Amino acid sequence: MLVLNPFIVISWILFAALFPISFYWLRNAYKIFIKKDYSRVALKKEEPPKNPAKWAPFVGFLNLAAGIAIVWAIIGALPFWFIYSYEKWTGIAAVTIWFKLFGEYIIKTHAHPFKVAKNK
User: Fold this and answer.
1) Rounded to an integer, what distance in angstroms lies between the CA atom of residue 110 and that of residue 115?
2) How far apart are CA 19 and CA 27, in angstroms?
3) Could you give the dihedral angle defined by the CA atoms of residues 94, 95, 101 and 104, in that order, rounded to the nearest 10 degrees?
4) Which of 41, 64, 80, 84 would be 52's cystine partner, CB 3.0–4.6 Å?
5) Which of 47-51, 82-86, 87-91, 95-99 is the most confident on average?
6) For position 12, what pLDDT does the model report?
7) What is the CA radius of gyration of the chain?
């Protein structure tokens, strides 16, 4: 008999959240590489950089790599294959999410350099 404890509930929430996360990231990569839509590239306070086409390959590759890694974690976690243990697929998912967040931050800070105000 399956007993629902917080550990199992959180695991299922994480597993269910991987589907929309991977869809969103792969869709962003598709928009950048195929549709050439740079409207969501390296935004800082909802403002794009001066030259979004320059930063689009970096953001697109980051989205593509992270989306593929999450799909890989989903496939590895499917109960009828048991490719990965619980620790492995959650580790892949967690490291990928953090990698994506830090990667976007690094690209965003390079795309929007600090402006030094001149004293008048």
Assistant:
1) 12
2) 12
3) -150
4) 41
5) 95-99
6) 87
7) 18
pTM (2 d.p.) = 0.86
Give me the residues paired with residue 44 across strands: 47
- Give the percent of the chain with pLDDT over 90: 58
Q: What is the DSSP string of 25-65?
A: HHHHHHHHHTS---TTSS-BTTB--S-HHHHHHHHHHHHHH
pLDDT in tens, 36-80: 999 889 888 888 888 999 999 999 999 999 999 999 999 988 877
| Contact status, residue 33 vs residue 53, Cβ threshold 8 Å | no
55/44 Cα distance (integer angstroms): 13
- Here the tokens at position 32 are 């950048």
Burial class (CB within 10 angstroms; exposed 0-12, middle 13-18, buried 19+) of 62: buried
pLDDT exceeds cutoff 90 at 117:
no
- What phi, psi does 75 have (nearest 5°)? -60, -40
